[in-house]
Amino acid sequence: MSTIKIKLKKSPIGKIEKHKRTIKALGFKKIGQVVEKEDTPQIRGMIHAVNYMVEIVD
N or C: lower Cβ tally within 10 Å for the chain? Predict the structure, then answer.
């Protein structure tokens, strides 16, 4: 499978609890951190839920 790189661009502080848990589940710990995940429909759904806090990088 292919992979996708995701960058956390905004802090989850003060956001909806469900979105905080999604950010943690994606593996983020700091702003600016880039994580690499497999490109699956589940990961894409998680990205879509918190798209205002993350961006896909090349």
Answer: C
